[in-house]
Amino acid sequence: MPELPEVEITARLIGEAVSGVRIESALTPGINALRSFDPPLSAIEGATIAGIGRRGKLFVIKVEPELSMLIHLMSAGRLQLYETRASLRDRTSRLLVRLGDGRELRLREFGTKQAAWVKLLRAGELENEETIATLGPEAYPDPPPLGPLLDAPRPLHGLLRDQRVIAGIGRSWVDEILHGAKLSPFKRGSELSEEEAGRLREAVVACLGGALEHYGQVLKLPIPDKLPMPLAVHRRNGEPCPRCGDQIEAVFYEDYVMCYCPTCQTDGKLLKDRRLSRLLK
Ligand SMILES: [Zn+2]
Predict the structure, then answer these.
(1) Could you tell me the distance, in angstroms and rounded to a whole number, from the CA of residue 239 to the centre of ligand 1?
(2) Cβ proximity of 107 and 95 under 8 Å
(3) Which distant-in-sequence residues (6+ apart) come within 8 Å of 213 by Cβ?
(4) Percent of the chain scored above 70 by pLDDT?
(5) pLDDT in tens, 189-214
(6) What's the pLDDT score for residue 281?
(7) Which strand (E) or helix (H) includes residue 120?
(8) Torsion angle of alpha carbons 164, 170, 173, 178, nearest 10°?
(9) Over 32-69, what HEC string results?
């Protein structure tokens, strides 16, 4: 599930490799991932890639002279660069950008949901695009003070993942960040003390920055399907907490799992397992 560090490292590595390269053609095999109509996808044929950037968890591929391709991976998409062209039978391909030098930039999507999308926008349209326009401030490298930003009577676990509140954090990194800040996932944003808000901000920067540094050391092209995410808490339920040695616990939801250390984060309290309590009803 790609979040800010995974999208950022991908944008950096692939961006470096394709900047200045001419686009030969682009197509969207299978179910159409293109969510914009004007300009048509053919408008990028013959144009040059100026670079790849990131906003929140989205890629922005700048295409000269004045187009931007916005790509949202959703939960199971990947942006990858290949030396050769895809077989059109590859069912994971959602967008193929064929480059003049024979390589191919590919948006692939794994799993059964087909939710990843692409929009081709003109210069000036990017900031007004509905997803971009609603994004909160970037979580990295320099998020604003979190006290005012998270001042809502909602649990931190949901607030930090809400892209309209702060952009870039998802289900994996939120567990690491809250563990880093020694805060309960269910603590309400409006109940954060100034000291806690400061600690949380530091944990956001440290976790996302640490992940990026790790990826910078271990990743190079081609980017693998599954990134080596340096997670210490998320999906580590049953294992010892790296800080205190207590057992990491989990709360299971329908489509994700929240992991935390009771000793470090909840004064030793076990949070209710929603899956279990639903079964017992
Ligand atoms: Zn602990």
Answers:
(1) 11
(2) yes
(3) none
(4) 97
(5) 999 999 999 999 999 999 999 999 99
(6) 44
(7) strand 117-122
(8) 60
(9) CCECCCCCCHHHHCCCEEEEEEEECCEEEEEEECCEEE
CA 266 / ligand 1 centre spacing (Å): 10
Phi, psi of 230 (to 5 degrees): -80, 70
Using the mean position of ligand 1's atoms as its centre, give its distance from the Cα of residue 77 in Å.
Answer: 32
Distance 243 CA to ligand 1 centre (A): 5
d(CA 64, CA 86): 25
Instruction: Please check the confidence at residue 279 and state whether its pLDDT lies above 70.
Output: no
How much distance in Å is there from the Cα of 182 to the middle of ligand 1? 8
Name 60's bridge partners: 53, 70
Question: How far does residue 167's CA lie from ligand 1's centre (Å)?
Answer: 27
233 C-alpha to center of ligand 1: Å?
A: 9
Whether omega for the bond prior to residue 5 falls within 30 degrees of 0, making it cis, is: no
What is the C-alpha to C-alpha distance for residues 64 and 246, in angstroms, rounded to an integer?
53
In this prediction, residue 32 carries a pLDDT of 83
Helix segments in the chain, DSSP class H: 4-18, 130-134, 146-149, 156-161, 171-180, 194-218, 262-265, 274-280
Please state, as a whole number, how many other Cβ atoms lie within 10 Å of the Cβ of residue 159.
23
At 232-250, the pLDDT tens digits run: 999 999 999 999 999 999 9
> How many angstroms does the Cα of residue 264 sit away from the middle of ligand 1?
4
Tokens of residue 69, six digits: 């391709």
Ligand 1 mean position, distance from CA 271 (Å)? 15
